[in-house]
Structures
1.
Amino acid sequence: MKQLIIKRLLLLLPVVWGVVTIVFLLIHFIPGDPVDIMLGEQAMMAERELLRQQLGLDQPVLVQYGRYLKGLVLFDLGNSVYSGEPVFKRLADRYPATLLLAVASMLVALLLAIPLGILAAAHKDSWIDSGSRVAALIGISMPNFWLGPLLILVFAYKLDIFPIGGRDSPMSIVLPAITLGTALAALLTRMTRSTILDVIHADYIRTARAKGVPPWKVYTKHALKNALLPVITILGLQFGALLAGAIITETIFSWPGIGLEIIEAIQKRDYPMVQGCVLTISLSYVVVNLLTDLLYAVVDPRVRLT
Amino acid sequence: MSRRFQQPLFVIGVSMFLLLLAVAIFAPLFLPADYNQHMLAEQLRPPTAEHWLGQDENGADVLTQVIMGTRLSLYVGMVSVLFALIIGTTIGAISGYFGGWFDGVTMRVVDIFLAFPGFLLAIAITAVLGPGINNLILALAIVSWVTYARLIRGQFLALKEQEFVIAAKAIGASSSRIIWRHMLPHTLSPLMVQTTFSLAGAILAEASLSFLGLGAPPDVPSWGRLLASGARYLLEASHLATFPGIAIMIAVLSLNFIGDGLRDILDVQERGRG
């Protein structure tokens, strides 16, 4: 196991370097002068020079790159052009909210997907199965920036059960989590159904049935255990999509996470903050993928041997 | 009966998509109103006989904008997927066929691109380049070429060992002939399935970026931007969010129906990132 962890970590290094470098280069891809774009063309010469110095843009690119890498090691992502606050501090403040939302959406997705997937598999080729297929395709196709406002309209304005937005009460997370979790639920429902169908003809299931284990127990206890492995993988791989989807969901519900931060930063042309957000979200995704890989190895010992 | 027609969802998907395509192509012939015509006295009016889908916050006709939005979404989706398809397939084919250092380098690049959640990368690119249709296409193509590169490389690695390829090599066929004439046609099924899902993903991403104000410029009607104003006036004018939402859903759902059906018909197992 130790060897596996070291191997995966070494494989990860070039990827992390690539991500970090692309994020560094982002500001250099801005057409025209980034300082002009951040301050507007009316800004005073002195003001521009000051910002140029602050961002290090007056230095050769390689020097800038060296400083940037050194900063990263010291958790220094520069300062916000807008508020002057250190980017790292701001991100550290906002990150837990995004993580909480992502985890809550995963829970929503799992709670919906596993029962629905089992139900569809148990009634393969019946109307329940077809119904769940259509429902899953609708769930995948429903844009979250449509579902969100619809949920607000019905459950916040009309029925007044949940808050419209923000993060003032524990109830505030319900609507954003449903909005973000629906597409994932749809995907996982299909996945659960097909993995259960893959294992349902295995010998150990036949044995369980022959012993007289009731059908519901065969599905939930015997089949589900082995069917969950691919579901875990999909869940890990989809974590990136969740973090990216959180950008829209947080914007709709004013949920104070990194997603809302990046959109505000883009609107204010606060590029150091944009860079920090992109870096944080991508690196989280890389780490979650690594953890998924390792978790898979823990759950399924065969993986360790390959 | 052909297998195609045993798949009702596939047939429904194809019909819905052809309808949208017809709307996009022939839009200028039957536009009910000028989408730039602002009638401020008629802000946020609900659907009427004159304006079937109501009016927006400037009093402009919503139906006209939804129709023009179809054009934009399909255009951006198709062009970006086409670019991704050409670039990704070419790189994947060369990588899989020749292997060696080129394969090593491109696959590391692919790994780096896959380390970014796709939509986040699209946001970062459009944030840097600014809103605009060409920037939107560029961003979406940059995000999705990797899926094709990986898919085709994988297919080629398997095909390379097959007898017909070894035979073609033995009789002295050139590499480019083997790639284009012998191997690529065998990847058509997974390529078709992937393209349908990629198109669905691109349309959804275009609408999402426009919703965030990073996609279409303000003077071009788009589903995403229309929905963004709908979200601002939810209570006063729920029609404003409803109709563009339905349009996006029909477009994406039709492609998902087609892709899901195609996968069953062609019996394709692979599916990359959407």
2.
Amino acid sequence: MTFIDGVKVNLTEEEVEKAKTLLGRDPNQVEAGMIDVMWSEHCSYKSSKPFLKQLPKEGPRVLVGPGMDAGVIDINDGDVVVFKVETHNHPSAIEPYNGAATGIGGIVRDILCMGARPIALFDNLRFGKLRSNHSKWLFEYVVKGISDYGNCIGVPTVGGDVEFDDSYENNCLVNVGCIGLARREEIALSVAKNIGDILILMGGSTGRDGIHGVTFASRVLTEESEADRPAVQIGDPFTKKLIIEATLEALKTGYVTGLKDLGGGGLTCAASEMSGAGGTGVEIDLDKVFLREENMIPYEIMISESQERMLFVVKPEGVDKITRIFDKYELSYSIIGRVDGSQKVNVYKNGQLVAQVPSRMLSDPPVLNRPVKRPSYIDQLAEVSAPPTPLNLADVVYKLVGSPNLASKAWVYRQYDHEVGDRTVIKPGQADAAVLRILGKNKAIAAKSDATPSHSYLDPYNGGAGALAESCRNIAVTGAEPLAWVDCLSFGNPENPEVLWCFNETIKGLTDYALKLNIPCIGGNVSFYNEDQVSARVVKPCPVVLTVGLIEDCSYITTMSFKQPGDRILMIGLTYREMGGSEYYTFYHNIQGGRAPVVNLDLEAVTLKTVLKAVRTGKISAAHDCFRGGIAVSLIEMGMENNLSASVNLDGLSDLDLKFDELLFSESHSRYILTTREEYLNDIIEIFTQNNIPVKEIGVVTDSGRFEFEYKNRRVSCSMSKLRKLYYETIPKYMGVTEWMK
Amino acid sequence: MKIAIIQFPGSNCEYDALHVLKNVFRQDTHLVWHKDFNSGDFDAVILPGGFSYGDHLRAGVIAAYSPAMRHVREMAAEGKPVLGICNGFQILIESKLLDGALLQNNCLTFVCKWVNLRVETTRTPFTKFINESSILRIPIAHKEGRYVNTRRRIKELYDNDQIVFKYVDENGFESSDSNPNGSMDNIAGICNLDGNVVGLMPHPERASETILSPYKTEHGRLIFESLIKYFNGGR
């Protein structure tokens, strides 16, 4: 730990020296605080930036790429989609309710400050195993936090995933994503470019909550972390809802020239990034900032992360009109300063200049080139011997369907309002991705956020490529063409070269598949230091990818549920002996090892395009990505909604001589399960054979009440009613709910 | 017919109701900020869902004491149709325009799901042109929707034909399985004595187009269509 002028800063000696050189003198206390937060890992991406450069960021549809609060893509007709994912891991790990709620608050502000109305939320959650009471507590209150906040602001939570793994026992992961919709001409940017424009701080008051939130997020969790609870902000969704409406109304006036939310780094971050991006400077009078606590010193005001605040840059002649809108919504605001040409952030208190730092020194901090090293565990874990095939495979199927990772998450999504907004065409549980229509037009967007840490742990490259591949598959089966994606990467301590090697491999995997499919990354978030000293555990790498796709005609929209008995079932793609990180290995056998599934980039991309083509014929009655839990669980998932089952023969689905358990539960990529009516069967098969994609009719949808799997004259048969019970009741049972309606 | 949708701070289903009435039914519908609401301007009023005033103190209670509700009360007294959806129902209850209480769901959490409603009476403008005992598929999304009243008052609601909607199963039978929040007698919606003020927890504005329904239904339409027919000479 180093000190500047008696202020403790989370910077290295070299960084402190660098700051002194850039400033040309020793920083005072206020400046030290400002530099500390802006040069923190959380705000600066100083460890990750050199690696993130690899990602492809450009494409004909990209209007705003990485670097702004959220990326923006064009979806035709002048409509644009804005989206982003962020983590709120550390706050949620010590105060799950407010940590998760303010995570939603933060991501919504990111979308809002691009000028878009937030229309959908996503959350990807990772906790320790549910037999632990601590994990249950985190799970229950994270979900409650998202539910209370998201429902109140009237933005539907439509997708995501939840997984449980010991590595998240103390350091849970809360990834929150948001999608916004706007017209192209409405897009606002976080920039202060006109000298003389007025700065208006609007929304919540500034208090001591959340002070040093970003430095807290840039360290590992320790036993003392409980004492960091004051660093967790308190959310106010009611005020947020008013801010959403007031901001959108204010933007319509044309007087707002720039807009930024106050999140990590508070006023310092907003002021320096806006003036840095505009090549201008700002003057801020701290006497004008409305405070909720007495005797706050400039240091505290500048770095407070109190929630629900927005900084508007407004043309001088528009101030009256804008403030009248804020009055209508009874929102507090104050004129705190103006844009000048100094290229510095100038902070005044009682008429005295208390801080003066070049904007770009804060907004564009020095990056670090940290070393990487391939971890030795990777090769050790790859070589595990296959477990003996269990005698009773039906029992394995039951166990997997009832595993918390694969069981229905209805207990979670029933607590979220997923309907508000009148846009949700495909709702949680109905398909692999959420589909939201664009009101007044015959088009829709599909979106899904995914990550498979158990694969990433064993093979970060394929885990990264696989997260993007899975997310794209999930939206393609609904009839959507993937257009662009954002990521949210949660890793351990970047000062550990092995962690950083995994990070780099993940980025490489993401980059390679993105280039292959030719879809850009338009934004992202990195969360390091996800480890806790108490249990000495580092989280399994968790690269979350949120992909958005376009459905040009709503008649393309397809769900994953079996529709009627007699429909034929087609298996697309081949199955390999890729058991590492599978739910079968990790949950049933408790094996952490083996080879994780490999993404064959060419095959993955061409299969995706062909599946999309098939779905868009309108002849596919159900389409599902075949992945977690393997063929067995994927097929069973398709039967749940309409209580239908299937009878399938799995011969000829692999070039290798697989054992029955391997065929049922391998999680190889590039596989899909489709159903179609008998009369369309040949047409659909033809589409795949033309493109040299492996395709095989494996069986038929039935209403027999039993799932039947046959392979090499062996048979596994499972009762639908037992499967349904396990699928729907596992999570509620863990959470102490005795009666649960689907 | 001129319809108002009142926007309280924290309302969040007002745009959905506006979309349905304006774009689906082509009705003369206006979003009105609560401070600007004047009863004389409108023939019918909708109190939309959401979290008015952040549900502080109790869901709907602050809005119930707002000046806008004085105007709603006037409209109710004049016999004009008043519809409260979800939080709007909570406001009508808190302002005593409807009788009873809406408590926290018996599962103690927010619940968002599609349910089946049975139409119990056709004496209201919102159900007049729906066949009695029709089963409507409409979603709910609330945390405080458990309808509670004294046994004596519930009996009066039956006697006066004030129960408008009940939660039922697909076949139209009341059961505890089909009751999503523990409401007494599976009550999902009620009306005042005159029948012109109706409140319900489910959201018909989310079920008025087939594309939004997992069942390809559009049963929410029936409630709005009924109101339109009522005005077009069907009183």
